[in-house]
Design a protein that fits this description.
This protein has two domains: 164 residues, Immunoglobulin-like (Sandwich), CATH 2.60.40; 212 residues, 3-Layer(aba) Sandwich (Aminopeptidase). The chain contains ten helices and 16 strands. A hairpin with a 2-residue loop joins strand 3 and strand 4. Helix 5 packs across helix 10. It starts with a helix and ends with a helix. The relative contact order is 0.15.
Length: 380
Amino acid sequence: MRYCTLLLLLMCATAHAQLNKLNRFFYHRGAITDNIGCYFAERPVVNLIPVRKVAENQAVVKFMIPKAKVSSAEARAAIDRINKEGRITHNAPGSQQLNQTQVTPWYKIQVAEVTTPIDGIMFQFSFDPRKVRITYATFNSIQQQPGVVFQLHHLDVLEQLKDHNSAPHRLAKGTRIVIDQGHGGEDSGAVGHFNIREKDIAYQVGAKVAQHLQHAGFTVATTRAHDVFVPLDERTTFANEWGADLFVSIHANSSPRPTTAGIETYFLNLPATVDVYTANHHNMSQQRQTWRDEQSAILAQNVHQLTLNSIHRNYPNVPDLKVKKAISQVLLGTNMPSVLIELGFLSNEQEAIRLNTTTYQDTLARGICDGITQYCAKYA
């Protein structure tokens, strides 16, 4: 009866709502937390249908996004993949943060467009509440795109990390670092003066950063080895499952105002999440996220300041656009401290010319490497 009443209320509340298009869908896998990110044309209304506990080891929760529809082939293909995977299991990677104990939290996801009792998109999660905690939040991304993220936290792994989360993270040479070179392949990113493409700048600078870090003794991987398109959730899943300790995403900027210039750095700013089921140790996932966000802020400050210092030695007039909080899919999908740095504006003629030169790229790469090294030294 309560379920029917809820559905009737939803029907009344959304009868005249405008169709909301789901444009992009990402599934970020990780040993600690999995993230499902969905981007819509308008801010989505998320209606939680209360958790139904089937057994001690099984519960079902549903989310209804009324008056919504999958609008892109890309999003539909991603949803089809997640629907076909069925039950999800995980093995903890051999990172420095986790021991080798195998962990197998499980859940099953089904995403479907529905027409009864109202039009919309239904997300259904079947999960073991002893092993998985589910939270969600709505947000506006760095490009001001509205969306929702569903987070599935693996309690077995969080239990292993409990002491690690409450103590300073101690890093040393040998730390695993992922350098994410933005865009690639058919995704050119921003295209600026003289047809200079963001994907090329990100790749070139990222390769130099990786080389500097390797020479400094760190273990480094990049998300692409050449000019190829790699989906955002594959980049973050690789970093998570490889057991990366840090993640640095490299991009170039663009603006409608041709005079805008400078360097800016971002770290994640996710709004408060809603917990759909209070399981044992439910605070551990929040503690882990708080730790990651705090460390990301420190990493962002180090990378930003040391990059500026490196650039200002020869280019003192490059503007400091500061460190900022924002939501980006590559930051949202990672389980470790992560930052995104914008190296300059391709829409600014002077910066585009500089960004396309080896000397300027080397200077940027050295600064980014110095910032990462300084961050790691503080916790070594």
